[in-house]
């Protein structure tokens, strides 16, 4: 991928995430059933705060489930709240530089908008195709946000995260129950573990730890 300019690589994702949040809030239907999904997702934030990519991936099973069950606008609203809380937690933990933290939050919101829209576009054709497409879209969007020394092929193993997340979300949507989000906890733990293995591969020292290609340092 060609390196984007510093200005564009910083503001385009944040502007897109801001626009997505405004759209979601303006189209949000007053519902409360999704909030338990959000609480379970937020429960994982303290355990992922020190990771660089973990907050981007770990909540995906529940955010995807919200998109499937309650709609894209509700999912983007949930993702915005989750991303803000995760960003604040990471800032307090001094986990990374401010720009990288908020870019990660922006990509979480953009990712949710993209896979939510794709799912609802395809589900009338084939539920299986919609779930697989969610995984593919999520992988492509989140792959824009990566380590400075990481190539596209290096990110390929993280497709497992997107596939696990969309499969888990599909299960949660079929067995929609007030307590069903708890089932996602083991999947979230596996995603966190797999992501940390990937992070450890590229996390060499404090110089290469913070920058990402998309952050434009």
Structure description:
The structure is a single chain. The chain is mainly alpha-helical and 217 residues long. It has one domain (6-209). The protein is 69% helix and 0% strand. It contains 11 helices and no strands. The longest helix has 25 residues, at 98-122. The chain is globular and about 40 Å long. The two termini are 15 Å apart. Mean pLDDT is 85; it is low at 1-7 and 205-217.
Helix fraction? 55-70%
Query: What Rg is obtained from the alpha carbons, in whole angstroms?
Result: 16 Å
Q: Can you tell me the number of structural domains? A: 1
Summed up, the helix count is 11
Largest sheet features: none
| Average of the residue pLDDT scores | 85
List the SSEs and their pairings.
Layout: H1 6-26, H2 35-43, H3 45-48, H4 54-57, H5 60-70, H6 72-92, H7 98-122, H8 127-142, H9 159-174, H10 184-202, H11 206-209
Helix pairs in contact: 1-6, 1-7, 2-5, 2-6, 5-6, 5-7, 5-9, 6-7, 7-8, 8-9, 9-10
Which features characterize this protein?
217 residues; mainly alpha; disordered N terminus; disordered C terminus
Outline of the structure:
By secondary structure, this protein is an all-alpha fold.
């Amino acid at each position: 991928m060609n390196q984007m300019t510093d200005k564009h690589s910083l503001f385009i994702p944040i502007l897109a995430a801001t626009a997505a949040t405004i759209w979601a809030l303006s189209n949000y239907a007053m519902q409360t059933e999704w909030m338990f999904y959000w609480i379970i997702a937020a429960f994982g934030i303290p355990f992922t705060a020190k990771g660089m990519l973990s907050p981007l991936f770990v909540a995906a099973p529940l955010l995807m489930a919200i998109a499937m069950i309650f709609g894209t606008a509700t999912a983007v609203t949930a993702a915005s709240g989750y991303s803000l809380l995760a960003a604040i937690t990471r800032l307090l933990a001094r986990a990374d530089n401010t720009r990288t933290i908020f870019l990660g939050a922006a990509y979480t919101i953009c990712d949710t908008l993209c896979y939510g829209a794709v799912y609802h576009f395809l589900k009338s054709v084939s539920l299986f195709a919609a779930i697989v497409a969610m995984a593919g879209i999520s992988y492509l969007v989140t792959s824009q946000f990566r380590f400075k020394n990481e190539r596209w092929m290096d990110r390929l193993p993280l497709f497992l995260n997107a596939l696990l997340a969309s499969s888990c979300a599909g299960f949660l949507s079929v067995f929609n129950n007030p307590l069903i989000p708890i089932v996602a906890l083991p999947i979230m733990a596996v995603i966190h573990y797999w992501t940390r293995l990937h992070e450890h591969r590229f996390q060499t020292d404090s110089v290469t730890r913070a920058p990402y290609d998309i952050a434009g340092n």
